[in-house]
Amino acid sequence: MASISQWYAGKNVLITGATGFMGKVLVEKLLRSCPDVKALYILVRPKAGQSMSERVQDMMKCKLFDRVREVNPDFHQKIIPISSELTEPGLAISPEDVQTLTSCINIVFHCAATIRFDEPLKHALQLNVIATQQLLSLVQQMQHLQAFIHISTAYANCNRRHIDEVIYPPPVEPKKLIDSLEWMDDSIVCDITPHLIGDRPNTYTYTKALAECVVQQQSGKLNIAIIRPSIVGASWQEPFPGWIDNFNGPSGVFIAAGKGILRTMRASNDAVADLIPVDVVINLTLAAGWYTAVHRPKTALVYNCTTGGINPFHWGEIEHHVMSTFKRNPLEQAFRRPNANITSNYLIYQYWILVSHKFPALIYDLFLRLSGQKPQMMRIFNRLHKAIGLLEYFSSQDWEWNSDNMNMLMSQLSFNHKHSKSKEKKVFS
Prior knowledge:
Layout: H1 4-8, E1 12-16, H2 21-33, E2 39-44, H3 52-61, H4 66-71, E3 79-83, H5 95-104, E4 107-110, H6 121-139, E5 147-151, E6 162-163, H7 174-182, H8 186-197, H9 203-216, E7 224-229, E8 231-233, H10 249-258, E9 264-266, E10 275-277, H11 278-295, E11 301-305, H12 315-328, E12 341-343, H13 346-370, H14 377-395, E13 400-401, H15 404-418, H16 424-428
Parallel strand pairs: 1-2, 1-4, 2-3, 4-5, 5-7, 6-13, 7-11, 8-10, 9-12
């Protein structure tokens, strides 16, 4: 049985969302662990006054690529950017680029999505559902495609307590929703959003559930796998421990606690904080790509990529771990000494917000005003409260994810290790 890195040798890979957090780690891992991969085509949009090639050059200067750079200083030659815009028809890919992609791509990793919890429904639908439809219609034309891997989220079905590795019926038929929202004014869509998303907490989880349905509708014609990671955090080991490039979700909360800004958070101490390192997700994604192409499962396999069932870690434990970490390794320019308490009691939480957040912010802003500077602390706290408010749904309850397919893939890797010369199990587990 050939090893995973041997399978990727000579392959042309298409990656969406390659400039995002997970996309970058996927690009780096492919270049480093599958050095004979032929080319990585990445969909990139020009933004904020930067051209497409400038964005890619900036990405490749990142510390994340240092290990690849040491082994192969010319690694950038394998990265081929394709100008694209997810909100445009046909993803705004030029006819020449469509011709190139349809004639050479062997495997597609669809990582692009908006991960903002409070994204307006129309925009979330455009980026997470319609863009996936557009990409799938391009993928249908690919003559040498062997697998299509879609990155979803473990919380797509967070309205259920027990989540199996299956694609559940969608909350609404995606096409009907897209057609009906098309003519509606944004303010009307905003008004009806709570009724539409129902028992899901936000537009992100709602549109990711719809995207899974869109992918499933094509599973008869393509070899498809869906990866469902839980809360993706900093890297565990690869390319080095602790790499992260954003302050989304818990990462931002931890930094705010380390800086002494965040002193309280509302969460259930007993609820599992299902955090998963980004490199574990990417290793599973690449392994699933190989398995999907080689074994061609009859139906789209779903992989719940979670830690709660294997190695549960509770929100109540975070308080101790975060505090002890920042005492050992204090952050620069801290607002005050780190100290946080987690409570599930609403009144106690409101008391701490007032005493440890709002009063110090008012006093600090008054000091800034008196010294002729612009007040900023209250604004920072308001943004922080909004962020932790969006997290509350996930930090106050528990889910149970089945991970049979993930375990099956792991057993394939150990089998693979015994029958190949490569250290595959070590690299990909």
